[in-house]
Amino acid sequence: MFFYYFSLNAASIRDKDCTSRMTLESLPNELWSEIFKYLDLGDIFQAFHGLNSRFYGLINEYLFYDLNFRHISTRNMNIIFGQYLQSIVGRIRSLYLSNDDKVLNLPECLLSKGFTLDRFISLQSISLDRIHSFETLNQIISQCAKLDQLRYLNISTYCFTEKELSKLFNNIWSLPKLVSCVLNNYSTYVDCLPTISVI
Q1: Which 8-state DSSP code applies to residue 94?
Q2: CATH assignment of 64-199, given 1.10.10.10, 3.80.10.10, 3.30.428.10, 3.40.50.2300?
């Protein structure tokens, strides 16, 4: 009798375990959104793009992205620019562009592939680090003037002339919704600030 009762309970428990199992795919979109925050954009697209219609919609229509190109390899940059950026350019909230030792001229590469900053319509924050070319930096800032949601700007760069800085500052102050602007490495150019003509 005990054996019969035990075997019935074991079967019942086993059946409950089978029906109560959850697959990763059945997790809600909000949880996937949190999981994706810890993954690299290239990894997300390589693992989930084309997996099924739910994940296609999730990564192309539901998620917003914070892209940090600070330490990206040239290979990953080419994959992202060539295959994925086009479908999510309007869903990027923050962008970090840097000229570092791994990828030289990253901002120029982004612009040359047709990804002008005015296409990043959901952009709220942009960080520009070590951009050596004044023309490129000024072009990026000018394109940001068309972004209705851009609130935060952070620029760290090398030396520019006083005339270039004055022009750059005027373009920064003309950004329509800017709330915060952090300028690093500009302490020697404080004399340029009084020449700002746009307020």
Answers
A1: E
A2: 3.80.10.10
- Asked if 188 and 160 touch (Cβ cutoff 8 Å), the reply is no
Report yes or no: 156 and 184 within 8 Å, Cβ to Cβ: yes
Quote the CA–CA distance of 1 and 113 in Å, as a whole number: 76
Query: What is the value of pTM for the model shown?
Result: 0.76
C-alpha to C-alpha distances, 87 to 25, 45, 91, 182, 199, nearest whole angstrom: 22, 11, 9, 30, 36
Q: pLDDT per residue over 78-121, tens digit each? A: 888 888 888 889 999 999 988 876 666 788 888 888 899 999 99
Asked whether 79 and 42 are in contact (CB, 8 A), the reply is: yes
CA distance 199 to 196: 8
